[in-house]
Design brief:
Layout: H1 3-10, E1 13-15, E2 22-24, E3 35-39, E4 45-49, H2 50-58, E5 67-70, E6 83-86, H3 88-94
Antiparallel strand pairs: 1-2, 3-4, 5-6
Helix pairs in contact: 1-2
Length: about 100
């Protein structure tokens, strides 16, 4: 868990008491998902999805090939309790894409 990233996430949310969603109030991509600037392992800045960063900050490392998705259906939600990992390749195979 990364306290610095946790603070960065928590300063850019508004909690929705009715749904328990943590609504992202920072930058938003054209697809409607939150995005945030972070530094990689080489200290180089890059944009990343806010839900991806929230997962890393509060839960832990995301295995290679896996992505995060919101279980609540709200694209702006970054509540780690509403995030899960999924394998996009397995999903493609399951649905014949």
């Amino acid at each position: 868990m990364n306290v610095r990233l946790q603070q960065k996430i928590l300063t850019n949310i508004m909690k929705d008491e009715a749904t328990s969603c943590w609504l992202w109030t920072g930058q938003v991509s054209n697809s409607g998902y939150g995005k945030i600037m972070i530094k990689d392992d080489n200290n180089q800045p890059h944009m990343e999805s806010a839900d991806h960063v929230s997962y890393i900050a509060f839960i832990g490392k995301i295995p290679d090939g896996m992505l995060t998705r919101n279980t609540c259906g709200n694209r702006l939600c970054v509540n780690p309790d509403h995030l899960e990992l999924f394998d996009p390749e397995a999903w493609k195979q399951k649905y014949g894409i």
